[in-house]
Amino acid sequence: MRESLALFRKVAFSLLLLPFFIGGFAIAKEDPKKPGATEEDLFLYRAIGATYICVAREADIEFSKAAAIAAITYVNLLEGRHGARIKEIGDKKFSRKELIYGANNALLPATVEFCPDKVPKETKKEVKKFLKELKKNNKKK
Fold first, then answer.
1. Residue 115 in contact with residue 54, Cβ under 8 Å?
2. How far apart are CA 14 and CA 12, in angstroms?
3. ∠ CA(28), CA(64), CA(117), 5° rounding?
4. Closest Cα partner for 113 from 101, 127, 99?
5. Each residue's pLDDT tens digit, 46-90
6. What is the pLDDT of residue 28?
7. Dist CA 50 CA 67 (whole Å)
8. How many separate domains does the chain show?
9. Residue 60 structural domain
10. Distance of alpha carbon 17 from alpha carbon 65, whole angstroms
């Protein structure tokens, strides 16, 4: 049992590092013809990222490391496949900093939804506060 858990951890950790090794390939030359990410694309990347964090936490990877790797993977996908653009927003090309901020705002609530027992209490509090504030601001509009 211990050996299989150790093997699982090694494999999971290797998978966590994979985006850093292939990240350069995902960030291709800028192509103005790349379509902006659709709502469906964003939903898929959000689900993949949150699942990634949950699996990493199962393998005892520190939450902050798992979340950072998932966010960078999310950003690499948006930059590489969509030219850092989101269809619903228009033709605006987002900076890497903006994309990382957006990735965290998408991935952390999804992770709380998918595997709340794997999220630190303080992070859960911050996410709930963020969602409450977001809901309040949306009502004003």
1. yes
2. 5
3. 120
4. 127
5. 999 999 999 999 999 999 999 999 999 999 999 999 999 999 999
6. 47
7. 8
8. 1
9. 2-140
10. 10
Other Cβ atoms within 10 Å of 31 Cβ, number: 9
Rounded distance, CA 49 to CA 108, Å?
9
**What are the helix (H) ranges across 27-120?**
39-58, 63-82, 96-114
Asked if 61 and 12 touch (Cβ cutoff 8 Å), the reply is yes
pLDDT digits (tens, 9 = 90+) for 76-125: 999 999 999 999 999 899 999 999 999 999 999 999 999 999 999 999 99
Q: What is the pTM of this model?
A: 0.74
Enter the tokens of residue 126.
């911050």
List Cα–Cα distances, 135 to 129, 131, 141, in angstroms.
Answer: 10, 6, 10
Residues 6+ apart with CB under 8 A from 124: 112, 116
